[in-house]
Every structure is written in structure tokens, then in C-alpha cells.
Write a structure and sequence with these properties.
The complex is a heterodimer of chains A (309) and B (271). With 309 residues, chain A is mainly alpha-helical. Chain A contains 15 helices and no strands. Chain A starts with a helix and ends in a 5-residue tail after the last helix. The N terminus of chain A is likely disordered. Helices cover 76% and strands 0% of the residues of chain B. Chain B has twelve helices and no strands. The interface between A and B is large, with 103 and 95 residues.
């Protein structure tokens, strides 16, 4: 990462000239407006959230009492919280699916101009369509009476699943939907990554007698690991925060809370039951969880991500 | 053999992506008896008429909501650019331990679940009396998009040769003048990409919009979702509204597509 380079450069440049120092000041001026934003809209809400998690704050009652770790104790005994956590982890399933397919499609098309144009146009469609509209199409496609999916499935099986009322199938429907949404988008990243691999690598491999399969596994896959890593990080952060799909498909969290995710649970607690303090406690724990997952990903990444020559 | 594989791939991904959209279009024009048919026999445009011009049963036309979305998108985009473009330049050119740490902390904060910040943000805006106002919603969108703006723009500035401004400095131009007269014009396409991304985010954002908009500031996604109530879902109206709401984005894409691909992939290749 280039931040690392910045650090090593910093150490070398001990004797800074006057001009350089003046530029440094200008750099600070360029950056400073964001610091204000950062404090007011990220740090302050964060502090408020953590503080509120130690109170019994409820929108309906004006008095706010410090309750210590009560919310956190409640949280670990709360079966709905654990169910929501399980449902949230379920939402990680689409990541390997769309990454694999996107890579396959990108590999098939990256040398073909028409293929690239097709991708460019269609990856964009799901991306710009508001998520509300998309979930609607999905409800429509998977509708057990009129839906296209079930009329297709009924050709092969007697009882196609009722996607919208059975929590297990609703979760799979969300998995399919997220994969659908992200295959085209992810392909664009892979096409760009594949195009950035110098042709000479493949030519050299051919001279050494490596077949197409060997070339793919020994050259292509290792060289695109930075892109794969980026997609994994972004994908996990996104998947762990699945919310709108749940809200649209299972407005009550599904039968036996079989669909509700953590973010959905936080939202329910905060805005339906107005238990702000408790909602903030869940949000704090979950924020820490995402942070830990991301740090682990970055640590493990040193083992497998290609960092350049 | 290779060609066949190629064409099958293209056909498959086309089918996979477009089938739901086909279903959306077909359902939005199906007369009530023809709902669910793959090729509807009876076609009607009454739902489009209702969305475009309103109808007797009380469903309002789409225009005022679209205007709300465009206003909020425009305010947010302008402010995000004003703040993040200079900041990205600062992060790109003046690398020190402090600036690296600030830059990294933006990334960590971007990873926080937005829901964790929803409650406190709403409380802060409530105290300021900004719930259900354009300014209030823009004040939420702006900080969430600033990290994205910085990240995208930094990618473009990193790709701009340093010699350009070094020459200008030697000629005696100040740091700010160089930035304004030389660096900004060169990166016009980058700024356009960033603007498009921020605008799209604001245009389709649902979570905050549904919580903040009570009556006066209702944006498109909330309007579309409004056709679904616990009692009934008015499918055709909803789908027609959804389709019309996508159209401006498709036009935007027509203008910006070349830059967009560069914009989204630029950063990913570096990290």
C-alpha cells in the first residue's frame, strides 16, 4: 500500500527545506475542512452511541439513567440477537458465488471488445436502480402465485418453495439477489485487473511450455489477488450490513426471527420499540465485530495478496 | 471452442441480468387480468399515466419527488466536491505520518455500520430542528460520501504527474494557484466521475431518506416504497414508478460511462 511508502519516505527526508515546510502547511490547509466533518459527523455520533449504550435511554421517556453494563449483559442473553447474528453470517454466502462467476465471465470476455461493452452497460443497471425497486422486482419474480421463478420450477418439482413466507428460502432468495446484483459490477473490476497483466508474462510462460490452465492458476490468479482482496473486504462489509432486503421481504424479521439481520434488529429496537440505549449497545458490539473482522482480513492478506515486484 | 464459450458467457450474463428487468417492464404494463404472464395478452399504460400525471384514486405524480431527489443530490454533490477534492489533493501530495493516519482513519470509519451512527445523527439533527428538511438530509449524505470522494479523487491525483506542478512552482505560481489553474482542469473527468457517484448514492439512498423524510422532504425511494403498505401492495404502480425513476440515471450513464469504469477500477487496482 502506498501509505507504507509514505512512511519510509518520511523517515528519509530529515532535512526539510523551507519550501517543503511551506508546502506541508498548504497540504494541511487542503485537508483540514474534512477534519471538522469527521469530528462532527463520525466521531461525535460514535461517542454519543457508545455513551448511550450505557444508559436506559428510551425515546418515549425523558429521563435517562446510567445503567452500567446492563444493556450488554442483556444482549448476551438475548436469543434474538444470536439468531440475528447467525442470519447476518448467512449473508456472507453470496460473496464466493459472485466473485467466482464474475471472474469466470471476466476471463471469458476480457479480450473481446463487444463483451466488455455488454458488461459495462449491464453492470450499471442493477447498481443505479434503487434497492427498493430491485427488491420489488424480486418479490415479484419469487411470488409463489404468479412469480416467474416458481412457474419455471414447477416444471421440475411438485412443490416449489414459498420463497416469501419460509424464512429459510427467504434467506436463499436474498443470497441469489445479492449475487445477481453484484456479478456484473464485480466483473468490471476483474476485467480491469486482467487487462493490467502484461502480455509478456503469458508469452514467457508459453515458451516454457505452460498450458492455458497452468497459465491461469500460476499467473492470472496470483496477479489479480489485490483486486480479489479489495472485493472481499468491501463485500464482507456490505454483506454484514444487509438491511433493506430484510425490511422489504420480511418486515417483522420472518417467522421465528429466521431472516432478521443484526442491522435490521438494531433498527427495530431503535425505531419500533424505541429502546435507543439497547440499540446503541448492539451497534457498538457489532461495530467492534466488523472492525475485528476487517483487521483480521488485512493481517491474513499479507500471506496471500501479491504486493508487486 | 473458445469463441463458443465466449458467446455462451455473454448470453448467460445478459439473460441473468436482464430477465428481472424484463419482468419489471412487462408487469408494469400488464392489465390486471394479465399479471404474471410472461407475454401479457392485455397491455395497458394507465399505471404510467397515473405515475406521470397522478390519478383520481389519490396517487400523486412522480415529479415533485424526483425534484426532491435531484435537489438533495445536487446540494450534497456540490458540497462533497468542495470538501473532498482539495482534501484528496492534500492527501495525494503531502504525505506525512499525520496525513497518512488521518487518511486511514477515514477508511476505518467508513467500515462502521451506518446504522450505528443513524440514531445519534438523527438525535443531533433533531436538536438542530433539521428533521424532514433538505438541509438535514444533505447533512447526512455529505459526510458519508466525503470518504468516497477523497478516495476516488486521490486515485486521480496520484496518477497526475508531479512534474506539472513542480514546473509551475519554479515559474513562481503559488500552491493554490497551481491547484486551481493546472491540477483541477486536468482532472476534470475525475471530478465528473466523483460527482456522478455521489449523486447516484443520494438519488437511490433509502435508509436515511425513509427515517428523515416525514412529509415535506420525500425522495424517490421513499415514494416508491410508499406503494407498499401493510394492507396492500400496488405492484404495477410501484414498478412503473421504479422504472421511471431509473431513466434519468440511464441518461446520466450515457454521458459518463467511459469515466465511470475508470473511476471505480482506479482505486481497486492500487490496493
Amino acid at each position: 500500500m502506498d501509505c507504507m511508502n509514505a512512511r519510509s519516505k518520511d523517515k528519509k527526508g530529515k532535512g526539510k527545506s523551507k519550501l517543503e515546510r511551506r508546502e506541508g502547511l498548504a497540504g494541511l490547509l487542503f485537508v483540514s475542512p474534512t477534519i471538522i466533518y469527521f469530528i462532527v459527523f463520525f466521531l461525535l455520533p460514535l461517542v454519543v452511541c457508545v455513551y448511550a449504550s450505557f444508559t436506559n435511554w428510551n425515546i418515549l421517556s425523558p429521563n435517562r439513567i446510567f445503567v452500567g453494563t446492563l444493556n450488554y449483559e442483556k444482549l448476551f442473553m438475548d436469543p434474538k440477537f444470536w439468531k440475528a447474528l447467525k442470519n447476518t453470517l448467512f449473508m456472507l454466502i453470496p460473496i464466493p458465488i459472485y466473485i467466482t462467476f464474475a471472474l469466470l465471465f471476466a476471463y471469458a470476455c476480457h479480450k473481446n471488445i463487444l463483451g466488455q461493452k455488454v458488461f459495462r452497460a449491464i453492470y450499471y443497471l442493477p447498481y443505479i436502480s434503487s434497492i427498493v425497486a430491485l427488491t420489488l422486482i424480486w418479490m415479484w419474480l419469487f411470488n409463489s402465485q404468479y412469480g416467474l421463478v416458481n412457474s419455471f420450477l414447477s416444471l421440475f418439482v411438485d412443490n416449489p418453495p414459498s420463497w416469501l413466507s419460509d424464512p429459510f428460502w427467504t434467506k436463499w432468495m436474498i443470497v441469489i439477489m445479492i449475487s445477481w446484483k453484484l456479478i456484473g459490477f464485480t466483473s468490471i473490476y476483474y476485467i480491469a485487473a486482467l487487462k493490467s497483466i502484461p502480455k509478456s508474462y503469458y508469452e514467457a510462460a508459453q515458451i516454457d511450455g505452460a498450458g492455458p490452465r497452468q497459465q491461469f492458476f500460476k499467473i492470472t490468479l496470483p496477479l489479480i489477488t489485490p483486486t480479489t482482496f479489495y472485493l472481499l473486504v468491501i463485500g464482507m462489509i456490505g454483506s454484514l450490513q444487509t438491511f433493506v432486503e430484510v425490511q422489504m421481504f420480511a418486515p417483522d424479521g420472518g417467522r421465528g426471527y429466521g431472516v432478521g439481520t443484526i442491522v435490521f434488529y438494531i433498527w427495530q429496537k431503535a425505531f419500533s420499540s424505541s429502546q435507543m440505549g439497547y440499540a446503541c449497545a448492539i451497534a457498538t458490539v457489532f461495530g467492534l465485530f466488523i472492525l475485528v473482522v476487517t483487521v483480521v482480513q488485512f493481517t491474513v492478506s499479507r500471506k496471500w495478496v501479491f504486493e508487486g515486484d | 471452442m473458445k469463441r463458443i464459450f465466449l458467446w455462451i458467457s455473454i448470453a448467460l450474463i445478459l439473460l441473468w441480468t436482464l430477465l428481472p428487468f424484463y419482468s419489471l417492464i412487462v408487469t408494469s404494463i400488464a392489465a390486471s387480468g394479465s399479471i404474471g404472464e410472461f407475454f401479457p395478452k392485455n397491455v395497458t399504460f394507465e399505471y404510467y399515466r397515473a405515475i406521470l400525471f397522478g390519478d383520481e384514486s389519490g396517487s400523486k405524480s412522480i415529479w415533485s419527488y424526483m425534484l426532491n431527489s435531484v435537489i438533495i443530490g445536487s446540494i450534497s454533490t456540490v458540497v462533497v466536491l468542495l470538501v473532498s477534492v482539495p482534501a484528496a489533493y492534500g492527501f495525494s501530495r503531502w504525505r506525512s505520518r499525520t496525513s497518512t493516519n488521518i487518511y486511514l482513519s477515514y477508511f476505518v470509519l467508513r467500515m462502521l455500520p451506518p446504522i450505528a451512527l443513524v440514531v445519534p445523527r438523527l438525535v443531533i439533527l433533531g436538536r438542530l430542528g433539521l428533521i424532514d428538511t433538505f438541509l438535514g438530509l444533505a447533512l447526512i449524505y455529505i459526510p458519508t460520501q466525503i470518504p468516497l470522494g477523497i478516495w476516488l479523487m486521490k486515485g486521480f491525483f496520484d496518477g497526475t504527474p508531479k512534474e506539472l506542478e513542480e514546473n509551475a512552482w519554479v515559474e513562481g505560481a503559488g500552491v493554490f494557484k497551481t491547484f486551481w489553474k493546472i491540477i483541477l482542469p486536468i482532472n476534470g473527468s475525475g471530478i465528473a466521475v466523483t460527482a456522478v457517484f455521489v449523486f447516484i448514492y443520494c438519488y437511490i439512498e433509502f435508509l436515511y431518506a425513509s427515517l428523515m423524510g416525514r412529509s415535506s422532504v420525500i425522495t424517490l425511494p421513499t415514494y416508491i416504497a410508499g406503494f407498499s403498505t401493510p394492507w396492500e401492495i400496488r405492484f404495477q404502480l410501484m414498478l412503473a414508478a421504479a422504472l421511471i425513476s431509473i431513466l434519468p440515471m440511464i441518461i446520466l450513464f450515457g454521458f459518463a460511462q467511459r469515466y465511470i469504469v475508470r473511476g471505480i477500477t482506479g482505486g481497486a487496482l492500487k490496493y
